[in-house]
Write a structure and sequence with these properties.
Layout (H helix, E strand, L loop, with lengths): L15 H8 L2 H23 L8 H13 L2 H22 L8 H12 L7
Length: 120
């Protein structure tokens, strides 16, 4: 008269999305996390800027392409490097208006990729 409870294996727990994500390789998950992080950061910056003229769509697309290659911590370092290079470039040019962010972001990504200890 006793009832036995069937226990599902750990792989079967969760939603179908979590089951799907468990099947993906870790490198792809890091790339997807980096892509989502980069998009959210620059999209938030674009929406927060007055008049929507702070960060352009090309900057967001460039960061998304780099984010798919880098993991999210490397992406944050690349974004920080791009900001620092942009500040240095604007100070060197003595420019106070809008400056293109894409070249500085690309230079920071190239510096990040060219490090000797870098492993994608």
């Amino acid at each position: 008269m006793g009832m036995s409870l069937a226990v599902a294996p750990p792989e079967a727990a969760g939603t179908p999305l979590s089951q799907f994500l468990l099947m993906l390789p870790p490198a792809l998950l890091r790339s997807l996390a980096g892509t989502a992080t980069g998009f959210l950061i620059l999209f938030a910056a674009a929406m927060a800027s007055p008049g929507g003229c702070g960060v352009g769509g090309g900057d967001i697309k460039l960061l998304l392409a780099m984010a798919f290659y880098l993991s999210w911590p490397e992406l944050l370092l690349t974004l920080l490097g791009g900001c620092l290079l942009g500040i240095i470039g604007a100070a060197a040019a003595r420019k106070t208006g809008a400056i293109p962010f894409g070249p500085y972001l690309a230079a920071a990504g190239a510096c990040r990729h060219s490090r000797p200890d870098y492993e994608p």
